[in-house]
Design a protein that fits this description.
The chain is of the alpha/beta class and 276 residues long. Helix content is 46%, strand content 18%. It has eleven helices and ten strands. It has helices at residues 46-62, 84-89, 93-106, 123-129, 157-166, 169-177, 184-190, 199-208, 220-227, 229-236, 245-275; strands at residues 4-11, 20-28, 31-37, 67-72, 77-79, 112-116, 119-121, 133-136, 144-145, 195-196. The strands form two sheets. Strands 1-2-3-4-6-8-10 form a seven-stranded mixed β-sheet, sandwiched between helices. Helix 1 (46-62) packs parallel to helix 3, helix 3 packs antiparallel against helix 10 (229-236) and helix 5 (157-166) packs antiparallel against helix 10 (229-236). The N and C termini lie far apart (86 Å). The mean pLDDT is 93.
Length: 276
């Protein structure tokens, strides 16, 4: 399928990450395909977030309204989420990079489609959930998973809220409390995605739903902001609690110590009663 390149935004390198780019092409009229490539697995670093935000600005302010589709230039990964160590050590990462990117997608003034063509774990599937529509590759290439359970991390309110809004309670439970890995078919059955397939499936979804014209009247972004106002408020909040693993683990350690002390006190009281 012929495609014209409109622009490219570099993703600067940083230690452990060689950099990359976000390339915008047009596989169909007024369909803006943003392909991000940041080896090895499209981690949501500050530089990645900034480049994708810039690409969204260029589409909105230099081109006609249409549809934005995001996908990966790395076939194995759509995005493997955060570099957790980086996320908790870079000042302002949550508020200025990650939450800003999620909010931009959630209220973007034209339709957005995530074409998930590889693994989408943790922050990666959360990025896709902030799009309006999702298309997941078929053929078993990649899984979607909220895997905080597997590495012992909580899910902060600005990250969990999107699942409460966009998924059924039973699906939310399976995602978060079981860390289930969904393939394309499973994700479709669970309502996490709208179609299964490749770029042609995304283009068909866009055509079938008449999405190209939806952002032309100027109210699309405002309508979404109202639909998802709970998530928008959490992403905007300046005092919202961010992910502090050391504080979380310290609080959990204290909770366990206090619990063991209560159990010990109870057992001692039961022993005294037995002697009576």
């Amino acid at each position: 399928m012929a495609s014209t390149e409109l622009f490219s935004v570099p993703i600067p390198a940083r230690p452990s990450y060689p950099g990359g780019s976000v390339v915008c092409t047009t596989p169909a009229p007024k369909v803006y395909l943003l392909t991000f490539t940041s080896p090895s697995d499209n981690r949501l670093t500050p530089e990645f977030c900034a480049a994708l935000l810039t690409a969204l600005d260029i589409v909105e302010f230099e081109h006609e309204p249409g549809v934005v589709v995001t996908t990966s230039g790395i076939r194995k990964f759509y995005s493997n989420g955060l570099d957790l160590e980086l996320a908790v050590t870079v000042p302002g990462f949550w508020e200025d990079s990650l939450y800003t990117l999620y909010r931009r997608f959630l209220t973007y003034p034209m339709p957005t489609v995530a074409l998930i063509n590889g693994h989408a774990f943790a922050g990666g599937i959360i990025l896709a959930m902030h799009h309006d529509y999702r298309v997941f590759t078929d053929g078993g290439r990649g899984f979607a998973c909220v895997n905080e359970l597997e590495f012992g991390a909580p899910l902060p309110p600005p990250l969990s809220s999107i699942f409460r809004i966009k998924t059924a309670p039973s699906v939310y439970r399976t995602l978060v409390l079981e860390a289930k890995r969904f393939d394309g078919k499973g994700a479709l059955e669970a309502g996490l995605v709208d179609a299964v397939g490749e770029l042609d499936a995304a283009l068909k979804l866009i055509e079938d739903r008449g999405l190209v014209v939806k952002g032309t009247k100027g109210s699309y972004g405002a309508l979404k902001a109202e639909m998802y106002k709970e998530s928008v408020a959490l992403l905007d909040a300046k005092d919202v609690k961010i992910l502090d693993l050391s504080a979380f683990r310290a609080a959990n350690k204290k909770r366990k110590e206090e619990g063991r002390a209560r159990v010990k006190q109870w057992r001692e009281s039961q022993g005294r009663k037995a002697k009576l």
